[in-house]
Amino acid sequence: MEISINEIAKILQDYDPEVGIADQEKALVSNVVLVDDGIKNLNPDLLYICDSRQFREIIKTAGAGNFLICRSQQDPLIGCDKEKLNRIFLKIPVACEVVYEKIRAAFLNKRILTRKKNELMAAHLSCRGLQHIIDVAYEVLGNPMFVSDLGYNILAFNKNADVGDPSWPTASREAELEAYERIKKLNDCGVFKRLYESLEPCIENFDYSPTRWMANKIVIKEKNIGHIAVVELHKPFVDMDLVLLQFLCEIVASELQKETISSGHFNNDFEHFLIDVLDQKITKPETIHKQGQKLKLNQQKYLLLATISFGKNAQNGMSLSYLKGIVKRLLRTEKIILYQNKITVFLASDKKAELSEIVKPRFRDFLETNEMNVGISQHFDDLTQLSKYYLQSVKAVELGITLTPKEKIFYYQNYAIYHLLETAGTLSNLKDFCNPVLMELLAYDKQYKTDYYHNLLIYLNNDGNVTKSAEYFQIHRNSMKYRIKKIEEILSISLSDMETKFSLVLSDKIISFLAEQNVSAN
Q: Is 60 exceeded by the pLDDT of residue 277?
């Protein structure tokens, strides 16, 4: 965090500063130092405060640097034009200590301002909408506010604020006439003219209001589109509030442009339709089918949803809208939405094989680079089931991250059995569904130092194929046959029985699922 020499001079206007900049590259300083004695080495990032007597001694040996010289007596400065020396000379006498405290306070305010701006920017980058931005701004500025368009329609306001002012937004229809009269009065006395012509925030006092108001216009593409008004309710307005309000208006302008910068009317219609169906605002099958036909969503046989979720550090400094644009280009589709802080893509094809294009290396690299994962639903052909398949895509990511974290793309069909187990686990103890012979085999391995449990799992995973299982262990086929026979003898079962094999496979999945749940819990 730096402040320019010229900014510091403005802070000290009361002392008639004279500024001399010899090296523009060194004219930004990161801190201030009050000089006590001589200085051996100058740091070009610091501003040194001294009186004229000290300055004359320092410049005899000093190199490039930044100085603020407080006039201590009626004498001219010597050596002020020294090469590569930036300086501010205060013509009106003042103590160095007084100036030092003023500049220190300026640095502190600059840090606070930067932190508050970062909080507002983070609210915008979270892509949680205008209301979230205004709620965060309430905390940052310390006073409640509302956003209005040019038609005086309220776009967002702090609903939890108890303002008690007639200008504050209300849902009461009984107040509409009163609001109209108030707005007309404001317009007649030139409030809106001043607001929309001013380059800086306006602070107004109204005869009907017990508090002051601060407002600033919102501009998009050099056109006024509305304003933000802040009421002086909890704390008095300070200069920093004016700067923060201007910055907030820029953020709100960016947020309000999201609709207009989308790729076209069709995309808007698609986004609204898909979100309305997922939010169950549209539920009638005939309405869904009719709108789907209008948007040409059900013209192809195979449909699926792919939902991208983000890791803890995936969104550092990156907006969802920006990431959405990249996904659009990578997958070459306009059918994409932001929903529940995730990116969801609607994919359609007449052939299943074409849908496999989503796993191409370029997209996978993008997921890995940005700490993202994607869950892919099963195929469907009925748009009324969108919510069901959206949940599949989300659940695929949740289970995939837990069970196979090294993967980035998770197909629900590979995790459906675990979804079933998760659902059943809320009703019963999953261990009760395990075939007890697996526990017997584990106990046998532990007692006799064998590895029959592993052999059995490889045999089952290879669908009972002895040759493939033998190749896995790099042993002769007959050796593998012997091991399988030995397992059957130990457990008193027949691995040629389909129901037995299914029971063992299911039991292994239950054991693996429970093990991963324990790891995640710890």
A: yes
